[in-house]
């Protein structure tokens, strides 16, 4: 009888204990934490292509005359017309604010018109001179990008290198008739300064629009003919309005959209 009573008592106690169990209270989770993916590092190789229209300032020139020892002549005036050029280059975006590239630009023929004064059969006369000049400009450049604002990145830069200048024949017309001088051709020292702005077209491609000033040193202009020459120009100041595209192969060029935050909500913590 006592064993039966014990069993009955235990069966009554278990439900009582179960009824007394209370679920642990939930402690309120901390505020939602936002995790932001880091933006990709800016930097990588790019190629570029450019087209421009330029104006070239002829800084005058002189030439040797053989009528008297040591006598030299000088152009009364000279003018180089505007012309087009095409360029290409390869560069590296180092970081958000600095990049470098190597560029080559071919300047198509710019017509030259000038005049000189002298003597024709002992009588003073003025001649008309015509030629054309083309060039290949090779520069190593460095740029400072001044920050990106709504896809626009203003910049300034400078370059140093050389220019291969090629003059066509110089045709000289005066009262004695026509004389043709062979044109000069040689490499010369050159440097440049530029400013502009680029615009993000895609996350790899930028449109580039700007201005470049180039200074090309003087050198051979034409050879000897009919008791005059050789002649030498004093160099050029070139003013270019340029437009082009830059395509970056690797890394980031700063055109990607801003990284979006990802909300992270920790699980609830139960009080022990």
From TrEMBL:
Keywords: Signal. Residues 12-249 form the Outer membrane protein beta-barrel domain. Residues 1-18 form the signal peptide. The keyword Transmembrane does not apply. The keyword Hydrolase does not apply. InterPro entries: Beta-barrel_OMP, OMP/PagP_B-barrel. This is Porin family protein. It comes from Kumtagia ephedrae. The lineage of its organism: Bacteria, Pseudomonadati, Pseudomonadota, Alphaproteobacteria, Hyphomicrobiales.
